Amino acid sequence: MAKILLVEDDSLVMDMLTQVLERASHQVVCAANGEEAITCLKKEEPDMMVTDIIMPKKSGITLISEVKNCHPNMEIIAISGGGRLDPAGYLDLSESLGASVSFEKPVDNAALLMAIDLLLHGKKEKVSH
Question: Which CATH number fits the domain that encloses residue 59?
């Protein structure tokens, strides 16, 4: 299916999402924060990125902005529990910076997989025209 860069600082959430994505036949490359994600992007060529927003070292907001500058066609899905603030504010900001879709934690696995499939299908549609 797709190679997905998963950026998540909570190891339990990372493990759970990795299992969900791999069961759906996706290849998963993991990074624990935004800095690791940038390194992974240089080595790997993921089809899309799923990133947390509140992380140490480099936030998801900063990461989305940097990735969109270097990889403008990269599909990005943002996820956030919001930390001390309402997650909707972070997710709105992430979409304004280029995330295609955003989800509040806990993430609905079926909705996440559906969004991935739709984004991948949409990408193939653009390429074929």
Answer: 3.40.50.2300
